[in-house]
Write a structure and sequence with these properties.
- There is one protein chain.
- The chain folds into 2 domains: about 180 residues, no CATH class; about 270 residues, no CATH class.
- Helix content is about 70%, strand content about 0%.
- The protein has 18 helices and no strands.
- Helix 4 runs antiparallel to helix 5.
- The chain is globular.
Length: about 475
Amino acid sequence: MPFNSGIFLFCFFPAFLLVYFGSPQRWRNMLLLCASVLFYAWGEPRFIFWVLGSALLDYRLGLAIASSRLTHERKVLVGIGVCANLALLGWFKYAPFAADVVSPMLERLGSRPFSLAAIALPIGISFIAFEKITYLVDIYRGSGTPARNLGTYLLYVFYFPKLLAGPIIRYCDIQDQLSHRTVSFEDFRAGLVRVVVGLGKKVLIADHVGHYADQVFACNPARLICTEGWLGVAAFTLQIYFDFSGYSDVAIGISRALGFRLNENFNNPYLATSFTDFWRRWHISLTTWIRNYVYIPLGGNRCSTPRSYANLCICFLLSGLWHGAAWTFVLWGIFHGTFLVLDRAFWLEWQQRMPVVINRALTLLLVMIGWVIFRARNMESMDSMFSVLFSPWRAAEANVMWFSPDIAFAMFAGIFLVYLPLARIRPAAPSMPRWRACEVAASVALLLLVIGRLAVTSYTAFLYFRF
């Protein structure tokens, strides 16, 4: 039941709000849990029991870890929990890919080749598994405590706004909010405005530019010229940002309307001046997770310089694999890890001598090159796309792609919004009530545009559902 579907916008969400706010405070967590389980089961009924069973195991392990006084026993318990979650993630997401890698090796040793059929991937499994791991590890480290009851823990796991595509949240960050929260009118208003903004990003910008990006990346390279290739890459660069940040806006907005405060997941990433800066701004919850639960345990930057560089590469190799089981994702992770190492080695120091605008432009260009790797279907199509992008003199056969006015307008709107923060527009304090009124009016107009667009187009899933 995606946020941009009619069943969510016109049935589930309005009905849930009416029942939720019309019920006594003591019933609201149970209502929210029931709604969250229904939300997940609506799209993935056959996987609900996998997630429930895994959550029950984690809950019991969390209690056992907290009550144990033996260090060895606590390590075994947290190890069981982490391995169980990684095994669940590994089977559904990586088993066919691993079989394709291992089978040729075994064939060379004389064994018969084998393969696994594609396995249906439970929606949001990567986000769910990472959150469940943080719960157990935080209890083991003493930085978190077990949920006070099973219902509270299940609500943390299934909480529907962040369930399918994050942001990744730690239990200790919302523990108090799960037990007690209040909602002011300002919270409710600001939350719904944020929801509308997120839907606008997805429906009016990401989906529009995504049509052109899909055409370019699906086109026979022999029919593409350099300018069309770069235009397609620019379209995907805008698509993935407005699609994913749009989802995060909706999740954060719904949460605020319900009394929760989730951490931001994006902070104008295309204004970054380096790869280090980019990863402080892009998918912040994943970057934070990797730092706290992979990079620091590996030794972080407390070890030798070569080892810290290796730790960075390992972390971003895993980040690439987290996004999907394909060599293109592995290469994308290595690509970003390499530039982060270069940042630490010399680039951050060198770029201090250059204007900020040059640093921003160069970083964005390299990020766009990384998106080519990320978006390509396989290594062959990636090579073909790079041959198009870096061969401005090549001729191409005729194609039937049409860069329509609505796509052009969506791209210009996306670029405008990307660079709007540089204008630093702030309303004066005395005009704040008028500003709020204008904000609400603009939100209503934006919502009508979103509804109108959804009424005349087919449904388009959020990109990160596949990860």
